[in-house]
Specification:
alpha/beta, FAD/NAD(P)-binding domain, 3 domains, 9 helices, 29% helix, elongated, NAD(P)H dehydrogenase (quinone) activity, oxidoreductase, FAD/NAD-bd_sf, FAD-dependent pyridine nucleotide-disulfide oxidoreductase, FAD/NAD-binding_dom
Length: 385
Amino acid sequence: MPFLPFYLPRLKHLKIVVVGGGYAGIAALVTLLRHMPEADVVIIDPRFEHLKITHLHETFRYPLNDFLIPFSTLESRFGCRHVCAELNPSESVLRQWQNDRFLEVNNEILEFDYLLLASGSPVMQVNKPENVFDLLDFMAISGADLFHGRLSQTTAIARSISVIGGGATGIQFLFEIAHFLKRYQIECNLRLVHGENRVLNQFPVGFSTYTQSKMTELGIEFFPDTRYLGQQGEQVLLGDNLTGRKFTLPSSISFLFVGKKLETPFSANIFGQVVVEDTTLPNIFAAGDCCVYHAPGSNTMTAQSAVRKGMLTARNILRHSGALRLLEPYLHRDLGYVVSLGPTDAIGWLALEGNVVGGMPALVIKELVEAQYDLLLTGLDTYLV
């Protein structure tokens, strides 16, 4: 069994409930069972599969099933248990759970020594017509199948396609769509609509310069400082942020990527323990996009931060159950970030945000990071603490 610093086991068997089977929840699961194989771990998640959501744009090239791992497989691999349910506890409920050390789900009582909230940030649901798609749609159908389904309908011949949102998700989908159209020789006008004056505006300007030059090479129209107002038939309604002018453009299919925003994230201390009204709940931890840590470490809503928080909370759960109860503070800083620009290109930064790399070097970094997580799913931890 791997050595865990500051952990002197006091209990041989822990009951741990993990709410959420995304990146943070799975990272915690693997870490827990790596250091305490006999732990009784239950994962509560409304899906039947763990979804590698950061790969959804690649479903224009690969089947959706390539990015799904059934929880039944994880149950067999790690000896955990999956309960199919969705929980959205309030702070008062968390207080009750801390006192009771059990929760009820699907008419079953689940006792726990520790509870980990790792439910992520829900994708914003919006009312939209049948020719507007968002990330939720790609969780159910691959990009290729979605496109072929729309193109087979005589009333939805894609003369113009709009991608709304120039953040990391929108950009990755934009380039996959562009290469998909080129690969299948589909004549179509492709455009990007973004509310800011440059794409990827949360990153150094080098990201924007490189990405927008590649958009030009592919003939992608760019409408900066433009907000999405809605879709009517095969027309997208837009507004100019600078002049206030409203206008329409033809758009047979529109893709809406408005980003993630959690209205009321859980608050956690420097060790990952949930804090409610200035009171720490010592047996309830949180990780991933559903929480904000009051700590020096990164709170970015990325898979990288989710994995690191999941690992940290798992280690701290074990330490808290041990004889010393010396917990590890969350100090992780992002080591880099890569945005895919189609099958053969990417843009990113490594070590320092100003160290921008594009092309093949960025693509290699992306592949290495993804390989790390794939190894973790097999039980092999190659991450540095």
